[in-house]
Design goal:
single chain; 298 residues; mainly beta; 16-stranded antiparallel β-sheet; 22 strands; 8% helix
Length: 298
Protein backbone atom coordinates (compact mmCIF):
# COMPACT_ATOMS: atom_id res chain seq x y z
CA UNK A 1 0.00 0.00 0.00
CA UNK A 2 1.29 3.45 -0.90
CA UNK A 3 0.49 5.93 1.87
CA UNK A 4 -2.13 8.60 1.12
CA UNK A 5 -0.55 12.05 1.34
CA UNK A 6 -1.60 14.01 4.42
CA UNK A 7 -1.27 17.71 5.21
CA UNK A 8 2.14 18.40 6.74
CA UNK A 9 2.45 19.99 10.14
CA UNK A 10 5.60 22.03 10.77
CA UNK A 11 6.30 20.22 14.02
CA UNK A 12 4.91 17.30 15.98
CA UNK A 13 3.57 17.83 19.49
CA UNK A 14 6.42 17.48 21.99
CA UNK A 15 6.05 14.62 24.42
CA UNK A 16 6.68 15.52 28.07
CA UNK A 17 7.84 12.86 30.48
CA UNK A 18 4.92 10.70 31.52
CA UNK A 19 2.57 8.03 30.24
CA UNK A 20 2.75 7.75 26.45
CA UNK A 21 -0.91 6.70 26.40
CA UNK A 22 -1.77 10.24 27.46
CA UNK A 23 -0.14 11.63 24.31
CA UNK A 24 -1.00 9.14 21.55
CA UNK A 25 -4.36 7.37 21.52
CA UNK A 26 -5.06 4.70 18.91
CA UNK A 27 -8.60 4.22 17.61
CA UNK A 28 -9.06 0.51 18.38
CA UNK A 29 -9.17 -1.46 21.63
CA UNK A 30 -5.85 -2.23 23.29
CA UNK A 31 -4.97 -5.86 22.59
CA UNK A 32 -4.11 -8.15 25.52
CA UNK A 33 -0.91 -9.52 23.98
CA UNK A 34 1.60 -6.67 23.83
CA UNK A 35 4.03 -8.38 21.50
CA UNK A 36 3.97 -11.27 19.02
CA UNK A 37 6.84 -13.75 18.82
CA UNK A 38 7.47 -16.72 16.49
CA UNK A 39 10.69 -18.82 16.58
CA UNK A 40 12.40 -19.44 13.24
CA UNK A 41 15.70 -20.40 11.64
CA UNK A 42 17.90 -17.62 10.21
CA UNK A 43 20.66 -18.19 7.66
CA UNK A 44 23.05 -15.48 6.53
CA UNK A 45 23.34 -15.11 2.75
CA UNK A 46 24.25 -12.67 -0.01
CA UNK A 47 21.73 -11.63 -2.66
CA UNK A 48 22.72 -10.15 -6.01
CA UNK A 49 20.38 -7.40 -7.21
CA UNK A 50 20.19 -6.11 -10.79
CA UNK A 51 20.27 -2.49 -11.91
CA UNK A 52 17.01 -1.13 -13.33
CA UNK A 53 14.75 -3.24 -11.12
CA UNK A 54 12.69 -1.84 -8.30
CA UNK A 55 13.86 -2.70 -4.82
CA UNK A 56 10.63 -4.64 -4.19
CA UNK A 57 10.92 -6.80 -7.31
CA UNK A 58 14.66 -7.39 -6.93
CA UNK A 59 14.53 -8.47 -3.29
CA UNK A 60 11.32 -10.45 -3.69
CA UNK A 61 12.65 -12.41 -6.66
CA UNK A 62 15.89 -13.33 -4.89
CA UNK A 63 14.28 -14.31 -1.59
CA UNK A 64 11.76 -16.43 -3.48
CA UNK A 65 14.49 -18.10 -5.55
CA UNK A 66 16.34 -18.96 -2.33
CA UNK A 67 13.27 -20.86 -1.10
CA UNK A 68 13.00 -18.79 2.08
CA UNK A 69 9.79 -18.03 3.94
CA UNK A 70 10.91 -14.44 4.50
CA UNK A 71 13.98 -12.36 5.20
CA UNK A 72 15.59 -9.39 6.86
CA UNK A 73 17.76 -7.47 4.38
CA UNK A 74 20.60 -5.07 5.23
CA UNK A 75 20.72 -2.51 2.40
CA UNK A 76 23.76 -0.42 3.36
CA UNK A 77 25.44 1.01 0.25
CA UNK A 78 22.56 0.31 -2.16
CA UNK A 79 22.24 2.99 -4.84
CA UNK A 80 19.05 4.28 -6.50
CA UNK A 81 18.62 6.30 -9.67
CA UNK A 82 15.15 7.24 -8.38
CA UNK A 83 14.01 6.90 -4.79
CA UNK A 84 10.52 7.69 -3.46
CA UNK A 85 10.00 7.99 0.28
CA UNK A 86 7.77 9.44 2.97
CA UNK A 87 8.30 10.74 6.50
CA UNK A 88 6.19 10.63 9.68
CA UNK A 89 3.32 13.09 9.96
CA UNK A 90 0.18 13.81 11.92
CA UNK A 91 -3.08 11.90 11.42
CA UNK A 92 -4.79 12.22 8.05
CA UNK A 93 -8.22 11.34 9.50
CA UNK A 94 -10.02 10.38 12.68
CA UNK A 95 -9.22 6.69 12.18
CA UNK A 96 -5.46 6.86 12.77
CA UNK A 97 -3.18 8.37 15.41
CA UNK A 98 -0.42 9.08 12.86
CA UNK A 99 0.15 9.03 9.12
CA UNK A 100 2.72 9.84 6.47
CA UNK A 101 3.94 12.98 4.70
CA UNK A 102 3.55 13.67 1.03
CA UNK A 103 5.85 11.61 -1.18
CA UNK A 104 9.39 12.93 -1.63
CA UNK A 105 11.52 12.04 -4.67
CA UNK A 106 15.32 11.91 -4.64
CA UNK A 107 17.73 11.16 -7.48
CA UNK A 108 21.08 9.37 -7.47
CA UNK A 109 21.03 8.36 -3.81
CA UNK A 110 23.31 5.88 -2.04
CA UNK A 111 22.01 4.56 1.27
CA UNK A 112 24.27 4.86 4.30
CA UNK A 113 22.23 2.43 6.39
CA UNK A 114 18.93 0.66 5.73
CA UNK A 115 16.99 -2.40 6.84
CA UNK A 116 14.08 -4.07 5.06
CA UNK A 117 11.66 -6.54 6.60
CA UNK A 118 10.68 -8.96 3.83
CA UNK A 119 7.35 -10.75 4.06
CA UNK A 120 4.00 -11.12 2.32
CA UNK A 121 0.99 -8.96 1.62
CA UNK A 122 -2.02 -10.51 -0.10
CA UNK A 123 0.16 -13.46 -1.14
CA UNK A 124 2.86 -11.33 -2.82
CA UNK A 125 6.26 -10.25 -1.57
CA UNK A 126 6.19 -7.01 0.40
CA UNK A 127 8.94 -4.90 1.99
CA UNK A 128 8.95 -2.47 4.90
CA UNK A 129 12.13 -0.38 4.65
CA UNK A 130 13.59 2.49 6.68
CA UNK A 131 16.79 4.14 5.46
CA UNK A 132 19.22 6.96 6.14
CA UNK A 133 21.43 8.58 3.50
CA UNK A 134 23.33 11.77 2.76
CA UNK A 135 26.48 11.33 4.84
CA UNK A 136 27.32 14.58 6.65
CA UNK A 137 23.95 16.10 5.67
CA UNK A 138 21.71 13.14 6.48
CA UNK A 139 18.13 12.54 5.50
CA UNK A 140 15.90 9.65 6.52
CA UNK A 141 12.59 8.12 5.58
CA UNK A 142 10.27 5.20 4.89
CA UNK A 143 10.95 3.94 1.36
CA UNK A 144 8.22 3.22 -1.18
CA UNK A 145 9.89 0.05 -2.39
CA UNK A 146 7.96 -0.33 -5.64
CA UNK A 147 9.16 3.15 -6.71
CA UNK A 148 12.85 2.86 -5.79
CA UNK A 149 14.89 1.92 -8.89
CA UNK A 150 18.32 0.35 -8.47
CA UNK A 151 21.06 2.43 -10.09
CA UNK A 152 23.59 -0.38 -10.38
CA UNK A 153 24.10 -4.06 -9.72
CA UNK A 154 24.80 -4.69 -6.06
CA UNK A 155 25.17 -7.40 -3.44
CA UNK A 156 23.32 -7.17 -0.14
CA UNK A 157 23.50 -9.17 3.07
CA UNK A 158 20.31 -10.85 4.22
CA UNK A 159 19.06 -13.21 6.88
CA UNK A 160 16.94 -15.81 5.08
CA UNK A 161 14.19 -17.18 7.32
CA UNK A 162 12.61 -20.61 7.53
CA UNK A 163 9.74 -21.58 9.81
CA UNK A 164 8.19 -18.11 10.16
CA UNK A 165 7.57 -14.97 8.18
CA UNK A 166 5.96 -11.57 8.47
CA UNK A 167 2.55 -11.15 6.85
CA UNK A 168 0.53 -7.95 6.56
CA UNK A 169 -2.78 -8.03 8.43
CA UNK A 170 -5.13 -5.29 9.58
CA UNK A 171 -4.25 -4.44 13.16
CA UNK A 172 -7.38 -3.94 15.32
CA UNK A 173 -5.65 -1.56 17.73
CA UNK A 174 -4.03 0.93 15.35
CA UNK A 175 -6.23 0.28 12.29
CA UNK A 176 -3.08 0.05 10.16
CA UNK A 177 -2.16 -2.88 7.90
CA UNK A 178 0.96 -4.10 9.70
CA UNK A 179 3.46 -6.92 9.53
CA UNK A 180 2.78 -9.68 12.07
CA UNK A 181 4.82 -12.89 12.49
CA UNK A 182 3.19 -16.14 11.40
CA UNK A 183 4.48 -19.73 11.59
CA UNK A 184 5.14 -21.55 8.33
CA UNK A 185 4.48 -25.19 7.49
CA UNK A 186 8.10 -26.27 7.15
CA UNK A 187 9.73 -25.98 10.56
CA UNK A 188 13.45 -25.77 11.25
CA UNK A 189 15.65 -25.88 14.30
CA UNK A 190 15.19 -22.37 15.72
CA UNK A 191 18.17 -20.09 16.17
CA UNK A 192 16.20 -16.86 15.85
CA UNK A 193 12.75 -15.31 16.32
CA UNK A 194 10.52 -12.76 14.64
CA UNK A 195 9.13 -10.15 17.03
CA UNK A 196 6.61 -7.32 16.66
CA UNK A 197 5.85 -4.93 19.52
CA UNK A 198 2.59 -3.07 20.09
CA UNK A 199 2.04 0.64 20.86
CA UNK A 200 3.23 2.19 24.14
CA UNK A 201 5.42 -0.79 25.08
CA UNK A 202 8.98 0.05 26.06
CA UNK A 203 11.40 -1.30 23.46
CA UNK A 204 14.05 -2.46 25.97
CA UNK A 205 11.51 -4.23 28.18
CA UNK A 206 9.75 -5.95 25.28
CA UNK A 207 13.04 -7.19 23.85
CA UNK A 208 14.15 -8.71 27.13
CA UNK A 209 10.77 -10.38 27.71
CA UNK A 210 10.71 -11.79 24.17
CA UNK A 211 14.26 -13.16 24.41
CA UNK A 212 13.38 -14.91 27.68
CA UNK A 213 10.24 -16.42 26.15
CA UNK A 214 12.12 -17.58 23.03
CA UNK A 215 14.99 -19.07 25.04
CA UNK A 216 17.48 -16.79 23.27
CA UNK A 217 19.47 -15.00 25.99
CA UNK A 218 22.19 -13.76 23.60
CA UNK A 219 21.07 -12.19 20.33
CA UNK A 220 21.86 -9.53 17.78
CA UNK A 221 18.83 -7.46 16.84
CA UNK A 222 17.82 -6.05 13.45
CA UNK A 223 14.69 -4.01 12.89
CA UNK A 224 12.68 -0.86 12.35
CA UNK A 225 9.55 0.83 13.61
CA UNK A 226 8.35 4.01 15.30
CA UNK A 227 8.64 5.55 18.76
CA UNK A 228 6.82 8.15 20.87
CA UNK A 229 9.86 10.18 21.82
CA UNK A 230 13.25 8.72 22.68
CA UNK A 231 15.90 9.42 25.29
CA UNK A 232 19.55 8.63 24.56
CA UNK A 233 22.72 8.14 26.55
CA UNK A 234 24.93 11.18 25.99
CA UNK A 235 22.92 12.60 23.06
CA UNK A 236 19.99 15.03 22.69
CA UNK A 237 16.51 13.46 23.08
CA UNK A 238 13.93 13.12 20.35
CA UNK A 239 10.81 14.75 21.83
CA UNK A 240 8.36 14.30 18.98
CA UNK A 241 5.39 11.96 19.49
CA UNK A 242 5.83 10.89 15.84
CA UNK A 243 8.91 9.27 14.32
CA UNK A 244 10.33 6.68 11.98
CA UNK A 245 13.13 4.60 13.51
CA UNK A 246 15.94 2.35 12.30
CA UNK A 247 18.04 0.12 14.55
CA UNK A 248 21.77 0.45 13.93
CA UNK A 249 24.56 -2.12 14.03
CA UNK A 250 25.45 -3.24 17.54
CA UNK A 251 21.99 -3.84 19.00
CA UNK A 252 22.69 -6.63 21.47
CA UNK A 253 21.02 -8.69 24.18
CA UNK A 254 23.43 -10.65 26.41
CA UNK A 255 22.50 -12.92 29.27
CA UNK A 256 18.90 -11.80 28.81
CA UNK A 257 19.66 -8.09 29.22
CA UNK A 258 19.41 -5.50 26.46
CA UNK A 259 22.83 -3.87 26.84
CA UNK A 260 23.02 -1.70 23.74
CA UNK A 261 20.22 -0.42 21.53
CA UNK A 262 21.69 2.17 19.13
CA UNK A 263 19.18 3.65 16.72
CA UNK A 264 18.48 6.61 14.47
CA UNK A 265 15.11 8.34 14.08
CA UNK A 266 13.55 11.20 12.12
CA UNK A 267 10.70 13.47 13.23
CA UNK A 268 8.11 15.20 10.98
CA UNK A 269 10.31 18.29 10.54
CA UNK A 270 13.14 16.14 9.14
CA UNK A 271 15.32 16.49 12.23
CA UNK A 272 17.41 13.38 12.82
CA UNK A 273 18.41 12.00 16.23
CA UNK A 274 20.83 9.19 16.97
CA UNK A 275 22.10 7.44 20.07
CA UNK A 276 21.90 4.50 22.44
CA UNK A 277 18.32 4.27 23.70
CA UNK A 278 17.83 4.61 27.45
CA UNK A 279 15.77 1.79 29.07
CA UNK A 280 12.11 2.75 29.73
CA UNK A 281 12.51 5.84 27.49
CA UNK A 282 11.46 4.39 24.15
CA UNK A 283 7.70 3.66 23.92
CA UNK A 284 6.50 2.26 20.59
CA UNK A 285 4.24 4.51 18.50
CA UNK A 286 2.53 2.17 15.98
CA UNK A 287 4.70 -0.95 15.74
CA UNK A 288 8.26 -2.21 15.93
CA UNK A 289 9.35 -5.30 14.00
CA UNK A 290 12.58 -7.10 14.77
CA UNK A 291 14.60 -10.18 13.95
CA UNK A 292 16.42 -11.67 16.94
CA UNK A 293 19.37 -13.82 15.84
CA UNK A 294 21.40 -15.97 18.21
CA UNK A 295 25.05 -14.90 18.62
CA UNK A 296 25.98 -18.49 17.87
CA UNK A 297 24.54 -18.23 14.35
CA UNK A 298 27.09 -17.96 11.57
Amino acid sequence: MRPIPAPRRPDATPMPDGNSRDWVTHPGPEQPERYALIPCHARRALLHLKAGMTLLNAIGAEVGAAGADGACAILDGVGFSDMHYVMPDGPADDAHAAWYSETHIAKDITLDRATASVGLRDGAWFLHTHAIWGGDTPAMGHLLNDLCVLARDCTVEVWLLTGARLEVTLDPETKFPLFQPHPCTVQALPNAALLTVRPHEDLHTALESACAEAGLPDVQVHGLGSLIGARFTGAPPMSSTLSEVLLLAGCLVRDGRCLDLPLVCVDPSGQIYQGNLVPTKGPVLVTFEMLLVSHRTG
